[in-house]
Amino acid sequence: MEELKCEHDFGDLLGGKCRRCGKTGREIAAADSAHLVPGQDKPRETLTNGEPVTPDHREINPATGMQKGYVVLSEEERAKGFVRPLRRSYLHKKCGTTTTMGLAIAETYARDPKFYGGTFCCACRTHFPLDQFVWDGTDEQVGS
User: Fold this and answer.
1) What is the number of domains present in the chain?
2) What is the number of other CB atoms lying within 10 angstroms of the CB of residue 41?
3) Within 13 Å of residue 103, how many CA atoms lie on the same side as its CB?
């Protein structure tokens, strides 16, 4: 019987573990092949620049509050089509500021709305759970 491998869910910006298997980024990096889609040699997830996901991608830049790198679905995965509208901007309900994200992150939300567990506010300069954000111009929660 073939061993099933976790297709690690790095979408939780606020935690340090995969939501599916509970392994830390360091544990995942040690078993690098586990982030591959079964039967394929390309990762399902990459950083926004297309590079492989690294254990240190969550390090915060103190000048911006943003992570060193953000995980997205691979170009190949995003090219399969979207299940939700492609939206680039969202509103932080607590501070009233609209943040516009990069296209790869927006396409990841459109392909897999539950991929992320939190997102970044450009005014507050930190990450918060998705229930604090709505898509710009709507009352629809980000990630729904």
Assistant:
1) 1
2) 7
3) 5
Among residues 107, 38, 118, which one has the least CA distance to residue 72? 107
Can you give the pTM of this predicted structure? 0.72
60, part of any domain: yes
Query: What 8-state DSSP symbol labels residue 103?
Result: H
Task: Report the candidate in 8, 7, 12, 15 with the shortest Cα–Cα distance to residue 117.
Answer: 12
What 3-state class would DSSP assign to 60? Answer: strand
- Would you say 18 and 6 are in contact if contact means Cβ atoms under 8 Å apart? yes
DSSP 8-state code for residue 44 = S
Cα dihedral across residues 10, 110, 33, 50: positive or negative: negative
Q: Is residue 15 part of a domain?
A: no
Element (H, E) at 121: strand 118-121
**Domain, as residue range, for 93:** 25-135
Q: pLDDT tens digits, residue range 60-103?
A: 999 999 999 999 999 999 999 999 999 999 999 999 999 999 99
Let me know: does 115 contact 105? Beta carbons within 8 Å.
Answer: no
* Exposure on the CB side of residue 97, measured as CA atoms within 13 A: 11
The structure tokens listed for 61 are: 């830049």
